[in-house]
Structures are given as structure tokens and as C-alpha cells.
Amino acid sequence: MVVPVIDFSKLDGEERDKTLTQIANGCEEWGFFQLVNHGIPLELLERVKKVCSECFKVEREEMFKDSSPVQLLNKLVDRGEHGTKLEDVDWEDVFILQDDNQWPSNPPHFKETMKEYRAELKKLAEKIMEVMDENLGLEKGYIKRAFSGGVDEDGVELHHPFFGTKVSHYPPCPNPNMVNGLRAHTDAGGVILLFQDDKVGGLEILKDGRWIDVQPLPNAIVINTGDQIEVLSNGRYKSVWHRVLAKPDGNRRSIASFYNPSFNATIAPAPTLVAGETAETEEARIAYPKFLFGDYMTVYAQQKFLAKEPRFQAVGAR
Ligand SMILES: O=C(O)CCC(=O)C(=O)O
Ligand SMILES: [Fe+2]
């Protein structure tokens, strides 16, 4: 079983319907799929790989050696506890890029390259959301408007969706059985676009009760849907558990961009999708509560590595 690989360029040609169906299948059956020919220039992707790897080398590698996962693992090994697994840390170096936070200034081209990359990825996310609108039978732009907290009488979005980019490295781990690269979770937000390492694997998704690889595919963009798409789609598109294994060899790079609702946006199942359900009572047709995304994130911050259902319950009861 392999995660579906979809040629996104075919959306603009004769094979549009087939491609829409492939994406619908990716969303409904997998929650993860890989896009090739996605329109992001390969030359830009090459520069992104280069500046992120250099940034890790010059600014972060030394720091990682003193980080808490390294210290905690060393302690366990020193005590000879090779059968124990660390359950509350990840073997990962991370920093987040948003429009208004501080970015690394080393190497010199880092900022301009990543700015260009983020602009491209944001456009791609919006295209994918429109495909989801179409596949779900929603009005064009529905998901984006929902993530913006709606529009005013002139059609101007009330808020900005959140768009963040998480640059991660998973350095080689001397005891990969004793710690996760990143513990299993579902993503909180909307649409996630991941540019993962060409060679070093480790990302797995839970499919029909089994963990399977998201196979490294050079220059592909891996797409997955988070908890908010599950809610908006009233459960048609489920957010899927995934994790990253620590590996003994190779430093895995991954760059995940998150297109999420504004914290001020109210998220609820799309009424037309609720109306399409066959259950007798409205209560049974509506599978999820209505809530403010900011409130969801407060709950998520405490429960990221736990099941999502109690999060929906908690935020619905607020
Ligand atoms: O690094 C990866 O491949 C996955 C990262 C991830 O799942 C996350 O940041 O939520
Ligand atoms: Fe994730």
C-alpha cells in the first residue's frame, strides 16, 4: 500500500475529472496524498533545500547537541535503561516562520528564499482548498471564507487565515527505538503542505490500523488535512494520525506549511453537508460542534498527542 501520488498539472487538462476524483479519494480514504507537477518551480525547491540545510548547520546543529531530547536520552542510556522509551519529547529541531516573527538571517539568502517559497505554497494551498470545495459540492471559496471568519457586506474577508511554516530537522539518533522523531498526532488546522526529505524517510501514517510509510519522493509536496477540515466536511475528510520515526542515519529535513483558520474564525460543519446526511435527527446528522478556532488551539496545546474526539468534546462544551 502506498500513499497516492497525484499529477496536479492534469487538473487543467482533459483529465480534470479523473484528477478531481483522485484527490477526492486521497482526502476520503487516506487523509494524505502526494502531489507532483504541482507548479512550484523545482529550481525554487532546490534553493529551499539548500538554505534550510545550511541554516541548520550554521545556526542549530550545535544547539541540538545540548537539547532536552539529547540530554534525556543520554541519561537513560547512562542508566542502562535500553528498554525504556521517552514519551514526552521529540527527537526534532524546529523553528517556525510566520509573516511577523523573527527569521534566521543565516545563510544570507534564507529569508528571501523562504519568503518566495511561502508565497508559492500559500497559493497552492488555496488551489487545493478550491478543489476540496468542488469535490464536497461547496460553493467555490467556501473553505477559505470559513477560515477567514466570513466576509463583510463588500465581500472582504473579516480576518486572515493563519499561514505558518515549520522547518524541522530530525538528526541521526543513536538509539532510535528509545524516542520518536515526532510523536503520533493529528494536525489541528486546515490544509498542511509538507516538503519532506528526498532520501531520509521516517514519516508514517496510520491506515486501517497499520503504520505505513509516506515514501520519500523527490520534489513532491505531501498534502494532508487537519482537524478543521474534518469538522467543516462533517467527517467526510478525516484528519489522520501520523508520526515520524527517529532514524539512526541521515539528518531528515522536513518543511511543513500550515494553512489554518484565523484564531477568530468560527468553525462548524458546512450546513449543506449536514443537510446531505441521512440520519433522522439533526443531532445525529451534525457530527461536530461549532467553536472558535482559537479556543480549539488552547485545547490542542494541551492534548496534541491524544485522540481528537475529546478535543472536539472539550471545545464544544466551552
Ligand atoms: O516532519 C514531518 O514529516 C511531519 C511533521 C508533522 O507532522 C507536523 O509538524 O505536524
Ligand atoms: Fe503533523
Q: How would you describe this protein?
A:
Helix 9 crosses helix 10. With 318 residues, this protein is α+β, with helices and mostly antiparallel strands. Helix content is 37%, strand content 20%. The protein has a single domain, classed as Jelly Rolls (Sandwich). Fe (ii) ion (FE2) binds next to loops. Residues 185, 187, 242 line the site of fe (ii) ion. One of its GO terms (biological process) is fruit ripening. Pathway: Alkene biosynthesis; ethylene biosynthesis via S-adenosyl-L-methionine; ethylene from S-adenosyl-L-methionine: step 2/2.
Question: What is the element layout, followed by pairings?
Answer:
Blueprint: E1 5-7, H1 16-30, E2 32-36, H2 42-65, H3 68-78, E3 93-97, H4 110-136, H5 142-147, E4 162-170, E5 180-185, E6 191-196, E7 203-207, E8 210-213, E9 221-225, H6 227-232, E10 242-245, E11 252-260, E12 266-267, H7 271-275, H8 282-285, E13 291-292, H9 293-303, H10 309-316
Helix pairs in contact: 1-4, 2-4, 9-10
Bound molecules: 2-oxoglutaric acid and fe (ii) ion.
Fe (ii) ion binds at residues 185, 187, 242.
Text of the CATH class? Mainly Beta
**What class, by secondary structure content?**
alpha+beta
* Count of individual beta strands: 13
The largest β sheet comes out as: 7 strands, mixed
SSE run: EHEHHEHHEEEEEEHEEEHHEHH
**In what order do the strands lie side by side in the largest sheet?**
1-2-9-6-11-4-3
| Domain tally | 1
Helix content: 25-40%
The kinds of small molecule bound in this structure are:
2-oxoglutaric acid, fe (ii) ion
